[in-house]
Design goal:
Layout lengths: L1 E5 L4 H20 L6 E6 L5 H6 L2 E5 L12 H23 L3 E4 L6 H10 L3 E5 L6 H6 L5 E4 L13 E3 L16 H5 L7 E5 L6 H14 L4 E5 L5 H11 L9 E4 L4 H10 L2 E4 L4 H8 L3 E3 L9 H10 L4 E3 L7 H13 L1 H14 L4 H17 L1
Parallel strand pairs: 1-2, 1-4, 2-3, 4-5, 5-6, 6-7, 8-9, 8-11, 9-10, 11-12, 12-13
């Protein structure tokens, strides 16, 4: 049995795929399905270690991105897309998987195009409140469509829809506070704020955080995931803003956090400040009160819609980019930290929203279709 997984480009697409692969491997072991082979098609492996650990074979395939704004890159990406379609058709002919799972985004388009050409069954998953162009198109021929937000269902045929939530990697389902304060060098008696701007980081969040630092470190300790390319800039700016500040050791900027450190900060954080992509579902699983700052010009305005749909559950508050200032950020953090009853309500709302069985539900459907196709 061969199963092809596709999608990626960001952690928000890639790591839910890993979560589903983990669930497939677990179900295959429990069901004694010894011949299950997993493949992942994308231009880059994104995280080679995660692929290796989950027994996933990487297949490289070109994919071009069609941006909604004018860019000379759109011209060159026409050729990348065309070459990606040729590659996908050729490789699919020899691989011929029993089912293809698509996570959406331009990276998944060539494999899904080949699936339609060869009439290979397709399952897709939509993380956002509003589907992207590739998933809208793939929804027309997909066998099953899993959605993270109920609001996304209105964009697809009702008979194909399953509300599953968003898959979260098994190792991130349960926060682990043990040793967290010691690992980050934090004081157990001071409230902890976790700030994360997505897998690539966020310039506007980083700027507002470092400018709010003198106010923040007076009361709190901050673990700040800056993103890979932003750490040096953030450190330099923070050192200026906190010059001679007696609490400067309370600020901990980090490039990125691995699974172990994520579990620990999830176990000790009192409030999280975040973008509103797929990270929402990890935050919900961790039951942390959230301040969400959606990207203003995200594709289809999906981040704003994700943020407000999650906030309507009572688990988060939303601050628009256009309104964001260092003073407002500090003020909203103050408001949540000082209102223990409100934070408890937000934790309970997050727990109701979270779906720990998301990856398993999707994996079960993929295996069911694959078994049917094998016959």
């Amino acid at each position: 049995m061969r199963i092809l997984l596709t999608g990626g480009g960001t952690g928000g697409h890639f790591y839910p795929i890993i979560a589903i692969a983990q669930a497939i491997n677990k179900l295959a072991k429990e069901g004694k399905l010894v011949d299950v082979e997993l493949y992942y098609m994308a231009p880059q492996p994104y995280d080679s270690r995660a692929l290796y650990e989950n027994k996933i074979t990487f297949i490289q395939g070109s994919a071009g991105k069609m941006r909604r704004y004018f860019s000379i890159l759109n011209f060159f990406d026409i050729f990348r897309t065309a070459w990606g379609l040729v590659q996908a058709l050729w490789r699919m002919y020899f691989l011929y998987p029993d089912v293809i799972f698509g996570k959406g985004g331009h990276v998944s388009f060539p494999a899904l195009f080949a699936a339609r050409f060869f009439r290979i069954p397709v399952v897709i998953h939509e993380s956002d409140s509003v589907p992207g162009r590739v998933n809208r198109w793939a929804g027309k021929f997909a066998r099953k469509i899993a959605v993270s937000f109920p609001q996304a269902a209105e964009h697809f045929p009702k008979e194909k829809i399953a509300y599953t939530g968003n898959p979260v990697r098994q190792e991130l389902l349960d926060p682990n506070p043990a040793g967290g304060h010691e690992f980050f060098g934090l004081d157990k008696n001071i409230p902890t704020i976790f700030i994360i701007g997505g897998s690539q980081g966020s310039q506007i969040i980083n700027d507002n955080v470092v400018n709010a630092l003198p106010k923040l470190v007076a009361k709190y300790q901050i673990v700040h995931q800056t993103g890979k390319n932003n750490l040096d800039y953030v450190k330099q700016t923070a050192s200026v803003n906190l010059y001679n500040n007696p609490h400067q050791e309370r600020y901990k900027p980090l490039e990125n956090l691995n699974v172990t450190s994520l579990k620990m900060i999830a176990g000790i954080a009192d409030v999280v400040v975040s973008r509103s992509g797929s990270t929402i579902f990890e935050i919900a699983m961790w039951k942390i009160p959230a301040i969400l700052i959606p990207i203003t010009d995200s594709n289809g305005d999906h981040q704003r819609k994700n943020a407000y749909n999650y906030a309507r559950t009572g688990a988060a508050i939303v601050v628009e980019e256009n309104n964001l200032t260092p003073n407002l950020l500090a003020s909203e953090i103050d408001r949540l930290i000082t209102d223990t009853a409100e934070r408890e309500k937000m934790k309970q709302a997050a727990e109701k929203f979270a779906r720990a069985d998301s990856a398993q539900l999707i994996a079960q459907e993929i295996l069911t279709i694959a078994l049917e196709h094998e016959k």
